[in-house]
Amino acid sequence: MTYSSDTNAIADAAADVLIEAREVLAGGFRPYERVRVRRAGEDVETRDLLRAGPAVAVLPIDLAREEVVLIRQFRVAAQLANGKGDLVEIVAGHVEENEAPPATARRECLEEIGVAPELLVELFTYLTSPGISDEEVTLFLGIVDASRAALAPDAREASALLRVSIDAALSALSAGTVRNGPLVTALQWLALNRARLADIARTGAMPQ
User: Fold this and answer.
1) CA pseudo-torsion sign 185, 133, 27, 82
2) For residues 114 and 150, is the Cβ–Cβ distance under 8 A?
3) What is the CATH number of domain 54-203?
4) Which of 24, 61, 79, 158 could disulfide-link to 85, CB 3.0 to 4.6 Å?
5) Within a 10 A sphere around the Cβ of 200, how many other Cβ atoms?
6) 95 three-state secondary structure
7) What does the alpha-carbon distance between residue 70 and residue 87 come to, in Å, rounded to a whole number?
8) Is the pTM of this model over 0.85?
9) C-beta separation of 72 from 90 below 8 A
């Protein structure tokens, strides 16, 4: 065990590892692969993972109305996990080939809540479930006019659009009534940074 008060020590680092082989086990919506890896001084290990790749998530906020725009979607994995498959979510989607994450964020906002953000601010990037997937999500703050938000007439995934106050969204976070990872992550960020929203929107960037 190593103890350190140095914040620089609390950082992900490159691993001394050799990828020896990769095998596609199954295709489908996302490929499922078996990877043989050798870490320095150790035997070859086998790991299976879902190759999901880069994605974005957007927390759409109307600053004037102090509202958050959310959607409700059915997720079969959530249904199998705990019987609550109708999840409350933020805007999210996978980055297409040759598409920049901000472009994906704008496209997904139009597709899922019917309105493009007036301003996008990149917040941070995180791995959703690195034990089983390589999905890496870039989270954006999206400044929107909530009065223009609407489900697309041909929406296939989302079943409802929810305009809720920031207070109500943070209360749901505290009460534990929402469990979707990107939503929980975004609301935790909002709880920490609510007082700085106006400054972030004015400058278009996170304060250093």
Assistant:
1) negative
2) yes
3) 3.90.79.10
4) 79
5) 19
6) coil
7) 10
8) yes
9) no
Burial of 128 (0-12, 13-18, 19+ CB in 10 A): middle
* Residue owning tokens 């007439």: 153
Q: Residue 162 is which amino acid?
A: L
User: Do 103 and 67 meet the contact criterion of CB atoms below 8 Å apart?
Assistant: no
The tokens of 94 are what?
Answer: 């996978």
Q: Residues 109, 115: contact at Cβ < 8 Å?
A: yes
> pLDDT in tens for each of the 208 residues of the chain?
666 677 778 899 998 898 889 898 898 888 999 999 998 888 899 999 999 999 999 999 999 999 999 999 999 999 999 999 999 999 999 999 999 999 999 999 999 999 999 999 999 999 999 999 999 999 999 999 999 999 877 666 668 999 999 999 999 999 999 999 999 999 999 999 999 999 999 988 887 6
Q: Specify whether the CB–CB gap between 184 and 173 falls below 8 A.
A: yes
* Token couple for 1: 């065990």
Instruction: List where CATH 3.90.79.10 sits in the chain.
Output: 54-203
